[in-house]
Amino acid sequence: MSFPATRLRRLRRTETLRALVRETSLSLDDVVMPLFACPGEGIVRPVAGLPGIAQRSVDEIVREAEQLVGAGVRAVLLFGVPETKDADGSGAWDEDGVVQRALHALRAAAPGLTLLTDVCLCEYTEHGHCGVLDGDTVANDETLELLARTAVSHVDAGADAVCPSDMMDGRVGAIRAALPDTPIVSYAAKYASAFYGPFREVAESTPAFGDRRGYQMDPANGREAVREARIDVDEGADVVMVKPALPYLDVIRRVREAVDVPVAAYNVSGEYAALKAAAERGWLDERAAVLESLTAIRRAGADVIVTYHAKEVARWLQG
After folding, report:
1. Disulfide check for 102: which of 37, 62, 169, 215 has CB 3.0–4.6 Å away?
2. What's the mean pLDDT when you consider all of the chain?
3. Model confidence at 206, in pLDDT bands (50, 70, 90)?
4. Gyration radius of the chain over CA positions
């Protein structure tokens, strides 16, 4: 009886051998934790669809950030839930807005933490869309100046990088013209996905009418994502992001192969909620499933992962 000379199982025999030849790694350098700032003091408002995630007032954001830093998390992505909303989303660039106050507080309390901010108007507009309206249509070009104004206000308050997520054409160029020296992490391929439901609850950003399919990407398209990423790089993006992550691993790979800048992926709220729900029912091992999922996102080509699992991952990787 003959045996194959090539036996790939040889390097799988022990954990130390497997680790020695492991192709893809996951570390705390790779992950970013989303945080949601809201008005008030002493407020931690949990969200039913996102276990462990909450709206937090600025003082509680600082407390949470200090715990994240202590756990080894090195970067956060800030979203704002304003006290009031209007047609233009003017709270987004208010120098005393909730994100701006959170940035000032975090810069003082956690100077080593990298502060990224989501730049969009959907949380701040009374209609819930990502730009100003012309009738029932989002007005692309009229929105650009407001997005740039928002990004500038974030940097003035202490942001290390800004992350436009609105999917308006030309917004990276508009922000780059206003901020020549600031890193831009562009949501280059943001799909009109069914996996955003829990996020819209915590960010209070559900559209009052219609949907966002007129400006977010069609889930059926892959080549278009590459075009979006290349355009954003040409306009000055330093990092391009694919969102969601797990249903779009093929897109992450396509974008990784098409651009030379770092690629980020957003492991979105629906992905997080699905694993949490399955784990709570005992259907899977949460730690193993999360680490496998995030490793898959890295293996597909993502250099950076925005994930609600970041705090737990810090405990698991260092425990």
Report:
1. 37
2. 93
3. low
4. 20
311 is a catalytic site residue: no
What confidence tier does 126 reach under pLDDT thresholds 50, 70, 90?
confident
What's the pLDDT at 132? 86
Of residues 271, 310, 277, 280, the one with CA closest to residue 64: 310
Closest CA to 274 of 302, 299, 245: 245
Phi and psi at 42, nearest 5°, equal 65, 25
CATH class held by domain 24-318: alpha beta
State if pTM tops 0.90: yes
The single residue of 85, 243, 276, 311 carrying the catalytic annotation is 243
Among 224, 230, 241, residue whose Cα is nearest residue 303: 241
Burial 89-101 (b: 16+ CB within 10 A, else e): bbbbbbeebbbbb
Residue 108's SS3 state is: helix
End-to-end CA distance of the chain: 46
Task: Extract the runs of DSSP E, i.e. beta strands, from the chain.
Answer: 31-38, 44-47, 50-57, 75-80, 114-119, 133-134, 137-138, 161-164, 185-190, 239-243, 263-267, 304-307
Q: Annotated catalytic, 276? A: no
| Res. 301: pLDDT tops 90 | yes
